[in-house]
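Long-time lurker. I teach an intro course on protein structure, and each term I like to show students one example going from raw sequence to a predicted 3D structure in token notation. This year I'd like something fresh instead of my usual example. Would anyone be willing to generate the tokens for the chain below so I can use it in lecture? Attribution to the forum is fine with me.
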Amino acid sequence: MPFMTKHVVHISEAEAASNFADVLARVRAEIEVVIGDEVRPVAVIRPAEPHVRLLSESLRLAKEHASTATLDEDFARDLEAAINSHREPRQTRLHGTDPRLPAW
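-- Reply from a regular --
Happy to contribute to a lecture. Here you go:
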């Protein structure tokens, strides 16, 4: 499933060219930036999709590569404890809430 941003801003080519660092700051804050005018966008810059490898994929790759690695008997318990200790929702910076970002 593609990574989707919740916030989108539209800026002119001149705005993008005058301070590209601000454009990248917005993208890092998970804001999609559309460059151009409303009639004809020239470019869309969005955050890269995060790469996440599932445990099942890691185990499949290990098997395909004939890995001899073994997991100790407490691994499942430790993994479950780690997951349960980080169940809070991910905090993201929203438009206008980070003073380091330009106020477009």
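Some talking points for your students: The radius of gyration is 20 Å. The beta strands are 7-11, 31-36, 41-45.
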